[in-house]
Amino acid sequence: MVDKVLRHAGPDRLIHWLIAASVLVLLATGFLPVLGVDFDWVAIHWWTGFVLAAAVLAHLLRVAIAGKRGPILPGSRDVSDALAVARKTFRNAAPAPPRPGKYSVSQKLIHLAFSIVVLAAIATGGMMMVNVDTPWWDRNPYWISDGAWGIVYVVHGFSALFLITLVMAHVYFALRPEKALYLRAMIGGHITRSEYMQQHDPGRWRLKP
Amino acid sequence: MEILRLSRDVYGREVLEGASWDLIPVFFGLGLAVIVVHLIWRRLAVPRGQAE
Fold first, then answer.
1. Given this model, what pLDDT does residue A113 score?
2. Quick check: is B35 in a domain?
3. Which of A57, A109, A190, B52 is in Cβ range 3.0-4.6 Å of A4 for a Cys bridge?
4. What's the ipTM?
């Protein structure tokens, strides 16, 4: 029996790290000028936005080609799992929560939060590109009304602000010692079979033969 | 603390500019709060053998 269990295939890891790097660059180029660090950030910001959009598109295509909804999307069973985790969190005598499938409730929730925020940032960032001079087109600030532009900028700004919180939480939990197996899997792709058996319900995360 | 940035156009009408950058420390603090609360919870829960 092979001792290693594949958790993240190579292309998925590449996409993850591409998204991570581009989000960090986008946050830096978006917020450092606001905080007084003056540099020519606009071109870096929108080029990196293209990289992020391409990586997210690649991720969505991989999910679509796989032809299944994906084990990371929250489902009805996650509600009872979340309640069991909450009971155990607040009452030590409560029974241990059921082992998750491939992803825990908290992993599903943070993925959902990232999905909403990043997609909102990409959609509004894409619209804002109309308002930027590029090698391919001249800016057109009259494409939509001032009021509509305001809403676009508000959504983009709040997406970026939420990303600060989400990135901090994600990095913190990724670096937790008890979560080291998941960071290792996102780097090398695998967890051990004993980690799979201890941390996951094989009935809910069925391995391909 | 402002939640939105507002300005006035050439006709004096109020125009929405975007989210207020006063909120940067708020969202940073929220991230810090998540980390601190979890650290405290782990500190209290782990000696009792509580699983996460």
1. 97
2. yes
3. A190
4. 0.89
